[in-house]
Amino acid sequence: MRAYVQTRGTARRMDYAFLVRRPKDQWWDRLADASVIFTDGLEVAVKGAGDGCEVMICGVPSKRRDAVGTAIRYTLLLELGIADSSLAAPLVRCALGDASRADLGAGLDELFDAETVDRILSAQTAGDEVLLDRAGEAVAEIVNRAAAAESNTARGGVPGSPWAGSAEDETSVDAFLGYVAEVAHGGKGLAFTSHAVQSLDRARQVAQQFGPDLVLLVADAPFEGIKPLGKAEGSADIEKPAPISRVGILGLALCGLIVLLLIIWWVRRA
Questions:
Q1: How far apart are CA 159 and CA 175, in angstroms?
Q2: Terminus of the chain with fewer CB atoms < 10 Å: N or C?
Q3: Local structure of residue 148 (DSSP, 8 states)
Q4: What is the pLDDT of residues 36-82, one digit of tens each?
Q5: How far apart are CA 217 and CA 169, in angstroms?
Q6: Where are the beta strands (DSSP E) in the chain?
Q7: Rounded to two decimals, what is the model's pTM?
Q8: Gyration radius from the chain CA atoms
Q9: Could you tell me which residues come within 8 angstroms of residue 251 by beta carbon, excluding any fewer than 6 positions away?
């Protein structure tokens, strides 16, 4: 397991940045650039590549404030190998709950107080890598404690992707967590929450854009339950025209010949 933490410092010049080390690929930025997620608020995204997964959580609250009193947040990225894959679904469940997400923020605040964050952003040192290792351990402890307190951990089956579910529907949430678990245990796919997608048709367009191995959990969804994502209305995937028959071709040729003869007759008459 490898942890990455992004936050900001107190002074205005200390804008949001990853502390000590940064991931090689901020792949969730492509979702944000496509207006599929809002990274300045709560979103969760999971990417699996067959050998584990990466879990990104943005909007984790901190008790720290910047120079003008604005609340500061964390973005947390955990790279999980197959050996750590069992942590993925409970971590996502933890991020989706208000109280458990606040616990994540409190755990990070214990390691990254205002003085520590300001110092790291001013002059990062190699020794600070230890803090990130401890951050990963602290997150795992919080997640395991939250998972142990869950009274109902049973889940139903996971529909085949792509599909969209309502974040307000527990069956959809359980299926979403089940998909995350499958991806984490060596599957390939993309799962994320979205406060930006506001229609089922938009969700279908997202599936076309980012591929069929995708599920999304839509906040304030205008639909209920789980919806398979087929082709969107008015999509760019235009159907091919039906082939013209031989009779049709002969008819077009005859019409063209008649038009040509009429033009010749008209020219000679003039």
A1: 7
A2: C
A3: H
A4: 999 999 999 999 988 889 999 999 999 999 999 999 999 999 999 99
A5: 10
A6: 2-7, 17-18, 43-49, 53-65, 71-80, 163-166, 188-194, 214-218, 226-228
A7: 0.81
A8: 27
A9: none
